[in-house]
Amino acid sequence: MKRNTIIAAALAAVLLSACRTTSLPTPSAASSPAPAAASSEPSSKVVITNLVDFNALEDPADMSGYKWMDKNDTSFIEISLQESIRFFTEGGSGILVYSAPSCPFCNRAMPILDDVLAEYGIRAYYVDTSMPIASDMETSMKLYNELCSHISSIFELDENGEPMFQIPEVIAVKDGAITGHHLSLVESFTILDEDSQMDDVQKEELKQIYRDLIESCAD
Asked: How far apart are CA 168 and CA 54, in angstroms?
């Protein structure tokens, strides 16, 4: 398949970087249940009540770095990695997205997710993993490990049996608990060159996965 990009905690640059092939050992966490099945099309708009106040701007995130995002008014609100931890510590609800413009899998996933978010009339909380976590290594590692303590149950393992934080990772959270997640694109799709795209059937498959996630964390 076509596995997605692996994320590692930042080293000298103090970044969460896309397209890395290193991974860090992470603490274990309780496994998350699979999302409930949904119909192929949403019957109506949904409401996801998030009690965590991020003081985020209401303006959509700047997604212009994504190759196939062809509109400015997207359905993403950008938050920091540190803010995303509050979803789990303060009982938040919503769709969390860990992604980066330099990741080829992310470039193909984000426009599909944006379309589905618009169908439901909601916004997702977007963490750009290419941005610095903090201004120093010690704080960055502390925050990275704290996040992993909440989400490492969904990580795949590398050849050494160590959990890997990979992107694009889309996580549904309700009242601070993971209700489902999806990593990468679809099994049947392989990126052969920089212009490779999923066909309509594959795109619809990915859309349905995202619909299921949204419905799993809706009110």
From this structure: 22
Cis, bond preceding 35 (omega within 30 deg of 0) = no
Q: How far apart are the first and last CA of the chain?
A: 34
Gap between the Cα atoms of 130 and 98, Å rounded: 10
Q: Are strands 94-99 and 124-128 parallel, antiparallel or unpaired?
A: parallel
Task: Provide the residue-wise pLDDT of the chain in tens; the chain has 219 residues.
Answer: 445 544 443 333 333 433 332 233 333 333 333 344 444 555 579 999 999 987 756 678 999 999 999 888 899 999 999 999 999 999 999 999 999 999 999 999 999 999 999 999 999 999 999 999 999 999 999 999 999 999 999 999 999 999 999 999 999 999 999 999 999 999 999 999 999 999 999 999 999 999 999 999 999
CATH 2.30.290.10 fits 60-129+166-186+195-217, yes or no: no
pTM above 0.85, yes or no: no
User: Closest Cα partner for 19 from 84, 102, 87, 96?
Assistant: 102
Length of the chain: 219
Is residue 158 a contact partner of residue 25, using CB atoms and an 8 Å limit? no
Other CB atoms within 10 Å distance of the CB of residue 59: 10
